[in-house]
Write a sequence for this structure.
């Protein structure tokens, strides 16, 4: 039986001044054990990098875009306060790509600004932030160089990439140099959707369908191509994290297996195992909104492949921890893993959780 308690946690484990707030941090306890909670899906923005492409911050008048998307001396305290209120000890920061149309030199400058900025934030708040690099994936050889520099020299933990790159699938062989470098480094690659512009006409109208349907759909398409085009066979050591619970793929993956039997002529690239078997080689965030959806995701891919994700600062949820703890069918060990244990291991984070004084 899971036991949860929220305990005041005053002060900062790393002694940094901005880690101290009027409101105490909520400390999460499971089975009497204090956990370090890790949010692997948390976004930020660097206005200086956006300005290089003529994009003003914020990029749109969308009221759902909080000012804390920007991370600087003024906004970091507000973000830490929000994290404390939700019981989030560590956020893994990343930037959604907006530079895939940039030429090589401009893309290099954008990525350099962002990765240097991410490294600076992590260095000044080591217990509260980790980060995934930006890479110019439209230039695969450059992206491989950027990933190596970010991981080996800046201390970043991997990279975020879009679910497609200027219309090209991630499984296109031209991206193999990047995948090879990611595998060699053991870096986590977070596949985050950018929507499906080809479906824009059908996704118009009420409901924000371009996001609500389009984003999970792009993740589904991207992962399916990585499986069926043999990318995961060519690079079996890849560590791929899929946003939004992997989109729709885990809920209907058995159709991929059945498709090979039903329409064998469509099976053009021989695979080493059944398509559904590759799902257990990937990682997934927990942003699926209901305990039943999370239980189902764990049943399909394995609870040991799940990590907590919030999509912060977009206000999809402020109950990410409770969502996991309230899910039937997960053992205490599963919950400990999803809330932060797996992310600590995969990302090589500092193993000790902040104290719960």
């Amino acid at each position: 039986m899971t036991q949860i308690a929220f305990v005041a946690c005053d002060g900062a484990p790393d002694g940094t001044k901005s880690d101290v707030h009027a409101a105490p941090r909520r400390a999460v306890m499971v089975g009497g054990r204090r956990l370090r909670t890790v949010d692997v899906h948390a976004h930020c923005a660097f206005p200086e990098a956006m300005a290089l492409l003529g994009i003003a911050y914020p990029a749109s008048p969308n009221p759902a875009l909080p000012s804390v998307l920007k991370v600087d001396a003024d906004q970091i305290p507000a973000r830490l306060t929000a994290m404390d209120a939700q019981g989030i000890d560590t956020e893994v920061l990343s930037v959604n790509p907006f530079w895939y149309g940039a030429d090589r030199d401009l893309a290099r400058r954008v990525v350099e600004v962002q990765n240097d900025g991410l490294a600076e934030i992590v260095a000044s708040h080591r217990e509260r932030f980790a980060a995934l690099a930006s890479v110019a994936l439209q230039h695969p050889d450059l992206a491989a160089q950027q990933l190596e520099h970010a991981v080996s020299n800046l201390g970043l933990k991997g990279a975020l990439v879009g679910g497609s790159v200027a219309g090209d699938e991630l499984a296109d062989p031209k991206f193999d140099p990047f995948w090879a470098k990611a595998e060699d480094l053991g870096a986590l690659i977070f596949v985050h959707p950018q929507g499906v512009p080809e479906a824009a006409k059908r996704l118009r109208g009420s409901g924000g369908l371009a996001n609500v349907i389009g984003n999970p759909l792009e993740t589904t398409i991207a992962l399916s191509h990585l499986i069926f085009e043999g990318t995961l066979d060519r690079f079996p050591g890849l560590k791929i994290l899929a946003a939004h619970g992997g989109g729709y793929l885990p809920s209907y993956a058995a159709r991929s297996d059945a498709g090979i039997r039903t329409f064998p002529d469509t099976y053009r690239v021989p695979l080493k195992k059944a398509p559904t078997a590759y799902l257990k080689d990937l990682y997934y965030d927990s942003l699926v909104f209901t305990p039943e959806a999370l239980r189902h995701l764990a049943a399909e891919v394995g609870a040991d492949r799940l990590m907590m994700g919030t999509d912060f600062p977009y206000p999809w949820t402020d109950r990410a921890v409770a969502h996991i703890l309230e899910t039937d069918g997960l053992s205490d060990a599963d919950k400990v893993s999803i809330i932060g244990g797996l992310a600590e291991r995969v990302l090589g984070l500092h193993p000790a959780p902040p104290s719960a004084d």
